[in-house]
Amino acid sequence: MGISVQAVFKQFGDFQALNNVSVDIKSGGLVALLGPSGSGKSTLLRSIAGLETPDSGRIFLTGEDATDRSVQDRNIGFVFQHYALFKHMTVRDNIGFGMRIRKRPEAKIRQRADELLDLVQLSGLGERYPSQLSGGQRQRVALARALAVEPKVLLLDEPFGALDAKVRKDLRAWLRRLHDEVHVTTVFVTHDQEEAMEVADEIVVMNKGKIEQVGTPAEVYDQPASAFVMSFIGPVN
Ligand code: ADP
Ligand code: MG
């Protein structure tokens, strides 16, 4: 499902979090929203998800105006930095939660949960509780849970932000592989240039509530559109 954000503004008090943001995200892509802290990345992601309402502007999903649709009616899965797994539920029940509230038959839920456990390479861990998993494993459960209801779009807000460097690196490669397998349109937020360059097909660079540049990692690196992009993406000093 493609995403089109058109002239979106969002203000919190007198702070302009999104300042005339327009961007098109192709169906099936793996896109990074990259920018420094406070640049509006989460606000943009949350607006796409329906968790924030733009002050003005429109958001289209599959060519249809979804600006006024509820979160539930957008067919979107999301994962945040701090894994919000249910502590008292097993991994399998965490993954099945969204299907269960949609009243899918138990046998189907079980089957799909097992497929997803396989997909995120956690088969055999379905009966564990979140406290018995590593941080990286928990984030993979969160991803499996987001994918369980077959969303058309997957939104990830700094999904690996809370993890240590080694685990982050493993998960990057793993996200790339997962995407190549599932092909769901995926937008992930990061403030880490290297992460964006390594994982994404396309990078959306944000600064101060505006989009500075949209391009492939090579384009953004070789032909920075502004002094900001050059300093933010350029060789680490
Ligand atoms: P980023 O994800 O790039 O760090 P955000 O989109 O979270 O940036 O936010 C940009 C700024 O907008 C934040 O620094 C904060 O000052 C403000 N902001 C975000 N959400 C809220 C909110 N719910 N209420 C008030 N201010 C907010
Ligand atoms: Mg953020």
TrEMBL record:
One GO MF term: ATP binding
Its EC number(s): 7.6.2.9
Leading EC class: translocase
Keyword Disulfide bond attributed: no
Membrane topology value: Peripheral membrane protein
Subcellular location: Cell inner membrane
Keyword set, alphabetical order: ATP-binding, Nucleotide-binding, Sulfate transport, Translocase, Transport
Cellular component annotations (GO), alphabetically ordered: ATP-binding cassette (ABC) transporter complex
Residues of the ABC transporter domain: 3-233
Transmembrane feature ranges: none
UniProt protein name: ABC-type quaternary amine transporter
Provenance organism: Romeriopsis navalis LEGE 11480
Lineage of producing organism: Bacteria, Bacillati, Cyanobacteriota, Cyanophyceae, Leptolyngbyales
Section of the entire sequence shown: 1 to 237 of 338
